[in-house]
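pinned: reference chain
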Amino acid sequence: MYTVKCDVAVVGAGPAGLAAAVAARENGAASVLVIERDSAPGGILQQCIHPGFGLTRYGEELTGPEYYSRFTEKAAALGVEYLLDSMVLDVDADGGKVVCVNGKYGVTCVEAGSVVLAMGCRERTRENIVIPGTRPAGLYTAGSAQRLINRQNIMVGKKVVILGSGDIGMIMARRMTLEGAEVVMVVELMDYLAGLTRNRVQCLDDFGIPLRLGHTITRIEGDKRVTGVYVAPVDENKKPILEKEEYVPCDTVLFSVGLIPENELTRKASIAVDGRTNGPTVNQYMQTTKPAVFACGNVVHVNDLVDNVSAESEQAGKYAARYAAGKFPSVQGEAVCTAGANVRYVCPQKVALSDEADNVTLYFRVLAPQRDVTLRVRCGDTVLAQKKEFRVNPGEMNSIAVNTADVAGGEIVVEVV
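pinned: its C-alpha coordinates
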Protein backbone atom coordinates (compact mmCIF):
# COMPACT_ATOMS: atom_id res chain seq x y z
CA MET A 1 0.00 0.00 0.00
CA TYR A 2 1.31 3.44 -0.95
CA THR A 3 1.67 5.68 2.14
CA VAL A 4 1.74 9.48 2.41
CA LYS A 5 2.30 11.49 5.59
CA CYS A 6 1.11 15.04 6.34
CA ASP A 7 0.12 17.27 9.22
CA VAL A 8 -3.45 17.88 8.04
CA ALA A 9 -5.43 15.80 5.53
CA VAL A 10 -8.52 17.42 3.98
CA VAL A 11 -11.17 15.25 2.32
CA GLY A 12 -12.76 17.29 -0.48
CA ALA A 13 -11.47 20.19 -2.60
CA GLY A 14 -14.66 22.21 -2.84
CA PRO A 15 -14.96 25.69 -1.28
CA ALA A 16 -14.98 24.19 2.24
CA GLY A 17 -11.93 22.00 1.73
CA LEU A 18 -9.96 24.75 0.02
CA ALA A 19 -10.70 27.28 2.78
CA ALA A 20 -9.75 24.74 5.44
CA ALA A 21 -6.52 23.82 3.68
CA VAL A 22 -5.45 27.45 3.29
CA ALA A 23 -6.27 28.20 6.93
CA ALA A 24 -4.35 25.13 8.11
CA ARG A 25 -1.21 26.29 6.31
CA GLU A 26 -1.65 29.86 7.56
CA ASN A 27 -1.89 28.53 11.11
CA GLY A 28 1.31 26.54 11.14
CA ALA A 29 0.62 23.18 9.48
CA ALA A 30 3.85 22.31 7.67
CA SER A 31 2.16 19.98 5.20
CA VAL A 32 -1.48 19.93 4.05
CA LEU A 33 -2.83 17.36 1.62
CA VAL A 34 -6.26 17.74 -0.02
CA ILE A 35 -7.83 14.50 -1.32
CA GLU A 36 -10.36 15.04 -4.11
CA ARG A 37 -12.31 12.56 -6.26
CA ASP A 38 -12.58 15.00 -9.19
CA SER A 39 -9.74 15.79 -11.57
CA ALA A 40 -9.53 19.43 -10.40
CA PRO A 41 -10.29 21.44 -7.24
CA GLY A 42 -13.35 23.70 -6.96
CA GLY A 43 -16.18 21.30 -6.23
CA ILE A 44 -19.69 22.44 -7.15
CA LEU A 45 -18.44 25.96 -7.86
CA GLN A 46 -16.86 24.72 -11.11
CA GLN A 47 -20.32 24.65 -12.67
CA CYS A 48 -21.72 27.78 -10.96
CA ILE A 49 -20.89 30.28 -13.69
CA HIS A 50 -23.49 32.80 -12.48
CA PRO A 51 -22.51 35.82 -10.33
CA GLY A 52 -23.56 36.30 -6.71
CA PHE A 53 -20.71 34.75 -4.75
CA GLY A 54 -18.47 36.66 -2.36
CA LEU A 55 -20.76 39.58 -1.54
CA THR A 56 -20.16 39.23 2.20
CA ARG A 57 -16.53 38.15 2.12
CA TYR A 58 -15.17 40.33 -0.68
CA GLY A 59 -17.81 43.00 -1.11
CA GLU A 60 -18.19 42.20 -4.81
CA GLU A 61 -20.07 39.78 -7.04
CA LEU A 62 -18.00 36.87 -8.28
CA THR A 63 -18.87 33.79 -10.30
CA GLY A 64 -18.26 30.39 -8.75
CA PRO A 65 -14.96 29.80 -10.60
CA GLU A 66 -13.77 33.31 -9.70
CA TYR A 67 -14.57 32.65 -6.05
CA TYR A 68 -12.81 29.32 -5.66
CA SER A 69 -9.82 30.46 -7.76
CA ARG A 70 -8.98 32.98 -5.03
CA PHE A 71 -8.51 30.02 -2.71
CA THR A 72 -6.62 27.85 -5.20
CA GLU A 73 -4.23 30.73 -5.84
CA LYS A 74 -3.63 31.11 -2.09
CA ALA A 75 -3.27 27.36 -1.72
CA ALA A 76 -0.66 27.25 -4.48
CA ALA A 77 1.29 30.11 -2.90
CA LEU A 78 1.23 28.34 0.49
CA GLY A 79 2.31 24.96 -0.88
CA VAL A 80 -0.93 23.02 -0.33
CA GLU A 81 -0.71 19.67 -2.11
CA TYR A 82 -3.48 17.69 -3.85
CA LEU A 83 -4.24 14.04 -4.40
CA LEU A 84 -6.76 14.26 -7.26
CA ASP A 85 -8.87 11.56 -8.94
CA SER A 86 -8.89 9.85 -5.56
CA MET A 87 -11.90 8.23 -3.92
CA VAL A 88 -11.75 8.03 -0.12
CA LEU A 89 -12.84 4.61 1.12
CA ASP A 90 -12.34 4.89 4.87
CA VAL A 91 -11.39 7.31 7.64
CA ASP A 92 -9.68 5.92 10.75
CA ALA A 93 -10.88 8.61 13.16
CA ASP A 94 -8.77 7.33 16.04
CA GLY A 95 -5.56 6.65 14.12
CA GLY A 96 -5.62 9.73 11.90
CA LYS A 97 -5.54 7.71 8.69
CA VAL A 98 -7.44 8.20 5.44
CA VAL A 99 -7.56 5.30 2.98
CA CYS A 100 -8.27 6.18 -0.65
CA VAL A 101 -7.74 4.74 -4.10
CA ASN A 102 -6.55 6.38 -7.31
CA GLY A 103 -5.32 5.36 -10.73
CA LYS A 104 -1.69 6.36 -10.18
CA TYR A 105 -0.89 4.87 -6.78
CA GLY A 106 -3.70 2.35 -6.28
CA VAL A 107 -4.78 1.92 -2.65
CA THR A 108 -3.23 4.78 -0.70
CA CYS A 109 -3.00 5.44 3.05
CA VAL A 110 -2.67 9.05 4.16
CA GLU A 111 -1.32 9.33 7.70
CA ALA A 112 -2.14 12.72 9.25
CA GLY A 113 -1.98 14.53 12.57
CA SER A 114 -5.60 15.59 12.02
CA VAL A 115 -8.30 15.16 9.38
CA VAL A 116 -10.83 17.66 8.01
CA LEU A 117 -14.01 16.29 6.43
CA ALA A 118 -15.28 18.56 3.65
CA MET A 119 -17.23 16.23 1.36
CA GLY A 120 -20.11 18.64 0.73
CA CYS A 121 -23.63 17.44 0.00
CA ARG A 122 -25.74 15.80 -2.71
CA GLU A 123 -29.20 16.49 -4.11
CA ARG A 124 -32.37 14.68 -3.18
CA THR A 125 -33.86 12.93 -6.19
CA ARG A 126 -37.32 11.94 -7.39
CA GLU A 127 -36.89 8.63 -5.57
CA ASN A 128 -36.34 10.46 -2.27
CA ILE A 129 -39.72 12.18 -2.50
CA VAL A 130 -41.61 9.32 -4.21
CA ILE A 131 -43.52 10.92 -7.09
CA PRO A 132 -45.72 8.42 -8.98
CA GLY A 133 -45.68 8.01 -12.73
CA THR A 134 -43.55 6.61 -15.52
CA ARG A 135 -39.74 6.73 -15.75
CA PRO A 136 -39.05 8.56 -19.01
CA ALA A 137 -36.06 10.60 -20.12
CA GLY A 138 -36.07 14.28 -19.19
CA LEU A 139 -35.94 13.98 -15.38
CA TYR A 140 -32.94 15.66 -13.75
CA THR A 141 -31.87 17.11 -10.47
CA ALA A 142 -31.24 20.83 -10.88
CA GLY A 143 -27.54 20.39 -10.16
CA SER A 144 -27.17 17.63 -12.76
CA ALA A 145 -28.82 19.85 -15.37
CA GLN A 146 -26.53 22.72 -14.35
CA ARG A 147 -23.44 20.57 -14.86
CA LEU A 148 -24.64 19.30 -18.25
CA ILE A 149 -25.36 22.80 -19.54
CA ASN A 150 -22.52 24.77 -18.00
CA ARG A 151 -19.66 22.27 -18.19
CA GLN A 152 -20.62 19.88 -20.98
CA ASN A 153 -22.61 22.21 -23.25
CA ILE A 154 -25.58 19.82 -23.36
CA MET A 155 -29.08 21.35 -23.43
CA VAL A 156 -31.42 19.21 -21.33
CA GLY A 157 -34.84 20.35 -22.57
CA LYS A 158 -37.07 22.99 -24.15
CA LYS A 159 -40.19 23.14 -22.00
CA VAL A 160 -39.44 22.83 -18.30
CA VAL A 161 -41.27 22.45 -14.99
CA ILE A 162 -39.15 22.81 -11.85
CA LEU A 163 -40.20 21.18 -8.59
CA GLY A 164 -38.83 22.99 -5.54
CA SER A 165 -37.86 26.62 -4.98
CA GLY A 166 -34.37 25.86 -3.71
CA ASP A 167 -31.60 28.18 -4.84
CA ILE A 168 -30.22 25.85 -7.53
CA GLY A 169 -33.73 25.36 -8.93
CA MET A 170 -34.38 29.10 -9.20
CA ILE A 171 -30.94 29.73 -10.68
CA MET A 172 -31.58 27.00 -13.26
CA ALA A 173 -34.95 28.56 -14.11
CA ARG A 174 -33.05 31.67 -15.20
CA ARG A 175 -30.30 29.66 -16.90
CA MET A 176 -32.77 27.60 -18.94
CA THR A 177 -34.61 30.76 -19.96
CA LEU A 178 -31.39 32.41 -21.09
CA GLU A 179 -30.63 29.31 -23.19
CA GLY A 180 -33.98 29.65 -24.97
CA ALA A 181 -36.09 27.14 -23.07
CA GLU A 182 -39.57 27.91 -21.72
CA VAL A 183 -39.80 27.48 -17.96
CA VAL A 184 -43.53 26.91 -17.48
CA MET A 185 -43.50 27.24 -13.69
CA VAL A 186 -41.64 26.58 -10.46
CA VAL A 187 -43.71 24.44 -8.08
CA GLU A 188 -43.09 24.55 -4.30
CA LEU A 189 -44.74 22.26 -1.75
CA MET A 190 -44.44 24.72 1.15
CA ASP A 191 -46.30 28.03 1.32
CA TYR A 192 -43.01 29.91 1.56
CA LEU A 193 -39.82 30.14 -0.49
CA ALA A 194 -37.18 27.45 0.06
CA GLY A 195 -34.27 29.57 -1.17
CA LEU A 196 -32.96 33.12 -0.96
CA THR A 197 -35.33 36.00 -1.66
CA ARG A 198 -32.74 37.62 -3.92
CA ASN A 199 -32.82 34.53 -6.17
CA ARG A 200 -36.59 34.74 -6.46
CA VAL A 201 -36.30 38.38 -7.56
CA GLN A 202 -33.35 37.93 -9.93
CA CYS A 203 -34.20 34.50 -11.34
CA LEU A 204 -38.02 34.27 -11.33
CA ASP A 205 -39.61 37.70 -11.02
CA ASP A 206 -37.22 39.42 -13.43
CA PHE A 207 -37.96 36.78 -16.06
CA GLY A 208 -41.70 36.48 -15.47
CA ILE A 209 -41.49 32.84 -14.37
CA PRO A 210 -44.52 31.81 -12.27
CA LEU A 211 -43.98 30.45 -8.76
CA ARG A 212 -46.72 28.16 -7.42
CA LEU A 213 -46.39 28.03 -3.63
CA GLY A 214 -48.37 25.35 -1.77
CA HIS A 215 -48.37 23.05 -4.83
CA THR A 216 -46.69 19.80 -5.84
CA ILE A 217 -46.31 17.42 -8.76
CA THR A 218 -48.60 14.45 -8.29
CA ARG A 219 -47.78 12.40 -11.41
CA ILE A 220 -45.25 12.31 -14.23
CA GLU A 221 -46.32 11.15 -17.68
CA GLY A 222 -44.43 10.08 -20.78
CA ASP A 223 -43.06 7.01 -22.50
CA LYS A 224 -39.58 7.57 -23.94
CA ARG A 225 -39.60 11.26 -22.97
CA VAL A 226 -41.57 13.32 -20.45
CA THR A 227 -44.77 14.65 -22.01
CA GLY A 228 -46.24 16.39 -18.99
CA VAL A 229 -46.90 16.45 -15.26
CA TYR A 230 -49.95 16.83 -13.06
CA VAL A 231 -49.77 19.69 -10.56
CA ALA A 232 -52.10 20.11 -7.59
CA PRO A 233 -52.39 22.41 -4.58
CA VAL A 234 -51.85 20.86 -1.14
CA ASP A 235 -53.87 21.15 2.05
CA GLU A 236 -52.63 22.14 5.51
CA ASN A 237 -51.20 18.61 5.95
CA LYS A 238 -49.29 18.87 2.64
CA LYS A 239 -51.59 16.30 1.00
CA PRO A 240 -52.44 17.00 -2.67
CA ILE A 241 -56.01 18.14 -3.36
CA LEU A 242 -56.54 15.86 -6.37
CA GLU A 243 -59.86 17.35 -7.44
CA LYS A 244 -57.92 20.56 -8.25
CA GLU A 245 -55.21 18.75 -10.18
CA GLU A 246 -54.19 20.20 -13.57
CA TYR A 247 -52.14 18.79 -16.43
CA VAL A 248 -49.05 20.79 -17.47
CA PRO A 249 -47.36 19.81 -20.76
CA CYS A 250 -43.53 19.75 -20.63
CA ASP A 251 -40.56 17.74 -21.86
CA THR A 252 -38.29 18.21 -18.85
CA VAL A 253 -38.64 18.18 -15.06
CA LEU A 254 -35.92 19.52 -12.77
CA PHE A 255 -35.91 18.58 -9.08
CA SER A 256 -34.67 21.14 -6.56
CA VAL A 257 -36.05 19.46 -3.44
CA GLY A 258 -33.26 19.71 -0.91
CA LEU A 259 -29.68 18.68 -0.20
CA ILE A 260 -28.27 15.87 1.92
CA PRO A 261 -24.81 16.08 3.56
CA GLU A 262 -22.42 13.39 2.23
CA ASN A 263 -21.88 11.60 5.52
CA GLU A 264 -21.29 7.95 4.66
CA LEU A 265 -17.63 8.34 5.70
CA THR A 266 -18.67 10.19 8.87
CA ARG A 267 -20.98 7.39 10.00
CA LYS A 268 -18.48 4.72 9.03
CA ALA A 269 -15.93 6.43 11.28
CA SER A 270 -18.41 6.22 14.22
CA ILE A 271 -18.62 10.01 14.47
CA ALA A 272 -21.85 11.26 16.08
CA VAL A 273 -24.33 12.68 13.56
CA ASP A 274 -27.01 15.26 14.37
CA GLY A 275 -30.42 13.92 13.35
CA ARG A 276 -31.66 17.39 12.38
CA THR A 277 -28.78 18.50 10.15
CA ASN A 278 -27.71 14.98 9.07
CA GLY A 279 -24.15 16.25 9.60
CA PRO A 280 -21.57 15.53 12.30
CA THR A 281 -22.00 17.09 15.72
CA VAL A 282 -19.30 19.76 16.15
CA ASN A 283 -18.15 22.41 18.59
CA GLN A 284 -17.04 25.95 17.72
CA TYR A 285 -13.64 24.61 16.62
CA MET A 286 -15.52 22.45 14.07
CA GLN A 287 -14.19 19.44 15.98
CA THR A 288 -16.31 16.29 15.82
CA THR A 289 -16.83 13.72 18.58
CA LYS A 290 -13.57 12.13 17.41
CA PRO A 291 -10.94 14.65 18.62
CA ALA A 292 -8.57 14.30 15.64
CA VAL A 293 -11.35 14.78 13.08
CA PHE A 294 -12.82 18.15 12.12
CA ALA A 295 -15.63 18.90 9.67
CA CYS A 296 -16.82 21.94 7.75
CA GLY A 297 -19.11 23.22 5.02
CA ASN A 298 -22.19 21.48 3.70
CA VAL A 299 -21.10 18.14 5.12
CA VAL A 300 -21.92 19.65 8.56
CA HIS A 301 -25.09 21.53 7.64
CA VAL A 302 -26.41 22.87 4.35
CA ASN A 303 -25.56 26.55 3.99
CA ASP A 304 -27.19 29.13 1.73
CA LEU A 305 -24.07 31.31 1.25
CA VAL A 306 -20.59 30.13 0.32
CA ASP A 307 -19.19 32.97 2.44
CA ASN A 308 -20.53 31.22 5.55
CA VAL A 309 -18.97 27.97 4.34
CA SER A 310 -15.59 29.68 4.00
CA ALA A 311 -15.77 31.21 7.49
CA GLU A 312 -16.67 27.90 9.17
CA SER A 313 -14.04 26.04 7.16
CA GLU A 314 -11.31 28.44 8.15
CA GLN A 315 -12.13 27.59 11.77
CA ALA A 316 -11.82 23.90 10.96
CA GLY A 317 -8.48 24.37 9.22
CA LYS A 318 -7.09 26.61 11.96
CA TYR A 319 -7.88 24.23 14.79
CA ALA A 320 -6.98 21.10 12.81
CA ALA A 321 -3.52 22.64 12.40
CA ARG A 322 -3.32 23.43 16.10
CA TYR A 323 -4.45 19.92 17.01
CA ALA A 324 -1.79 18.36 14.77
CA ALA A 325 0.85 20.59 16.40
CA GLY A 326 -0.28 19.74 19.94
CA LYS A 327 -1.43 23.30 20.56
CA PHE A 328 -5.16 22.72 20.80
CA PRO A 329 -7.05 24.65 23.53
CA SER A 330 -7.43 22.82 26.83
CA VAL A 331 -11.15 22.16 27.22
CA GLN A 332 -12.57 22.16 30.76
CA GLY A 333 -16.22 21.64 29.90
CA GLU A 334 -18.91 22.30 27.34
CA ALA A 335 -22.36 23.78 26.86
CA VAL A 336 -24.96 22.17 24.61
CA CYS A 337 -26.68 24.40 22.05
CA THR A 338 -30.44 23.79 21.94
CA ALA A 339 -33.04 24.89 19.41
CA GLY A 340 -35.67 27.03 21.15
CA ALA A 341 -38.82 28.75 19.87
CA ASN A 342 -39.11 28.67 16.05
CA VAL A 343 -35.59 27.29 15.59
CA ARG A 344 -35.02 24.04 13.67
CA TYR A 345 -31.37 23.47 14.49
CA VAL A 346 -28.24 25.23 15.80
CA CYS A 347 -24.66 24.76 14.59
CA PRO A 348 -22.25 24.26 16.26
CA GLN A 349 -24.17 21.91 18.50
CA LYS A 350 -21.73 22.38 21.39
CA VAL A 351 -19.59 25.20 22.77
CA ALA A 352 -16.33 24.02 24.32
CA LEU A 353 -15.27 25.96 27.39
CA SER A 354 -11.54 26.67 27.65
CA ASP A 355 -9.19 29.35 28.90
CA GLU A 356 -9.23 30.88 25.40
CA ALA A 357 -12.36 33.04 25.45
CA ASP A 358 -13.57 33.94 21.97
CA ASN A 359 -16.62 35.04 20.04
CA VAL A 360 -18.55 32.11 18.62
CA THR A 361 -21.00 32.52 15.74
CA LEU A 362 -24.07 30.30 16.11
CA TYR A 363 -25.76 29.52 12.79
CA PHE A 364 -29.38 28.39 12.71
CA ARG A 365 -32.50 28.06 10.57
CA VAL A 366 -36.04 28.83 11.62
CA LEU A 367 -39.01 26.50 11.34
CA ALA A 368 -41.46 29.00 9.84
CA PRO A 369 -41.40 32.55 8.41
CA GLN A 370 -41.91 35.41 10.87
CA ARG A 371 -41.66 39.20 10.81
CA ASP A 372 -40.44 41.73 13.38
CA VAL A 373 -38.63 39.26 15.60
CA THR A 374 -35.79 39.16 18.12
CA LEU A 375 -33.04 36.58 17.80
CA ARG A 376 -32.01 35.66 21.33
CA VAL A 377 -29.39 33.45 22.94
CA ARG A 378 -29.76 32.66 26.62
CA CYS A 379 -28.19 30.42 29.22
CA GLY A 380 -30.90 29.81 31.79
CA ASP A 381 -32.40 33.23 32.50
CA THR A 382 -29.25 35.08 31.44
CA VAL A 383 -29.44 36.64 27.96
CA LEU A 384 -26.05 36.23 26.26
CA ALA A 385 -26.93 38.04 23.03
CA GLN A 386 -29.90 39.32 21.08
CA LYS A 387 -30.66 41.32 17.96
CA LYS A 388 -33.67 42.46 15.95
CA GLU A 389 -34.56 41.13 12.51
CA PHE A 390 -37.19 42.47 10.12
CA ARG A 391 -38.01 38.94 8.95
CA VAL A 392 -36.78 35.35 9.12
CA ASN A 393 -37.39 32.54 6.65
CA PRO A 394 -36.46 28.82 6.65
CA GLY A 395 -34.67 29.24 3.31
CA GLU A 396 -32.18 31.74 4.71
CA MET A 397 -29.55 31.11 7.38
CA ASN A 398 -29.49 33.28 10.48
CA SER A 399 -26.59 33.81 12.85
CA ILE A 400 -25.76 35.46 16.15
CA ALA A 401 -22.47 35.68 18.08
CA VAL A 402 -21.80 34.96 21.76
CA ASN A 403 -18.59 35.18 23.79
CA THR A 404 -17.51 31.99 25.48
CA ALA A 405 -16.40 33.99 28.52
CA ASP A 406 -20.08 34.63 29.24
CA VAL A 407 -21.02 30.93 29.07
CA ALA A 408 -21.04 29.09 32.37
CA GLY A 409 -21.91 25.69 30.93
CA GLY A 410 -25.11 23.67 30.83
CA GLU A 411 -27.48 24.59 28.02
CA ILE A 412 -27.44 27.45 25.53
CA VAL A 413 -30.87 28.12 24.02
CA VAL A 414 -31.26 29.91 20.68
CA GLU A 415 -34.78 31.24 20.07
CA VAL A 416 -36.73 33.55 17.82
CA VAL A 417 -39.37 35.55 19.67
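why pinned: Residues 306-324 form the longest helix (19 residues). The first strand starts at residue 2 and ends at 11.
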